[in-house]
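To whoever picks this up:

The nightly regression suite flagged Response regulator transcription factor as changed. Nothing in the input moved, so I suspect the structure step. Input below, exactly as stored in the fixture:
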Amino acid sequence: MLQMGTQELTQPPVVMPTRTHILVVEDDPRMQKVLHRTFRELGYSVTVCGDGKTGLDAFHSIRPSAVILDLVLPNITGRDLCKTMKAERPETPIIVVSAINEVADKVLLLELGADDYVTKPFSPRELTARLQVALRRQQKPSTVTTYTFGDCTIDFARMTAHRAGQPVTLTAHEFKLLKYFVEHAERVLSREELLNEVWGYNSYPTTRTVDNQLLKLRQKLEVNFAEPQHFQTVYGAGYKFVP
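Regenerated output under the current build:
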């Protein structure tokens, strides 16, 4: 029986040495065992926590490479934990695992900065595939740190934005979407590509998610969001960012 709280579970030796450390925040002992065994077999170090508070403490102490996060947790909810972790270390991938499958919950978590969402029940193979995609995306060298377009100045490293000299508040996910647009300026990006590359989803319930996020970027960064100059719609194809 697993004890709740931060722990390094005893398992056979890993397949290969690695510095990649996965933090699992999950209160179901059976799921703890499954996830721990799955990630150890891939050669990852694993720390398992059974509640939100010990999960946050572990996040601070071990600085994990990625987080697997349940939504329903004692002490601190998964939503609050996701928001806190992303505010402190936005570069750390967070994959939410939950039995809750309403579209609104998925959209909310992605807006809070979660990198992916897997609904229980799921196959360990699916979860590990999504984790590996998130880790590869994290390891890509960053090509843009600061960027200026129109009357906007963006500092991706510090996660700050200004328009006409005034600070603009962007969510962690809005920064991710904006950065993808900046790194692919002048290229038409389909909604499906954006969902896959920014949200981390190979499939998603609705492409309206992209439309809603684009509207928010326009409202915050365009001089006139009703007649956007930078975040342009290419009808029948997707969107294009024009500096």
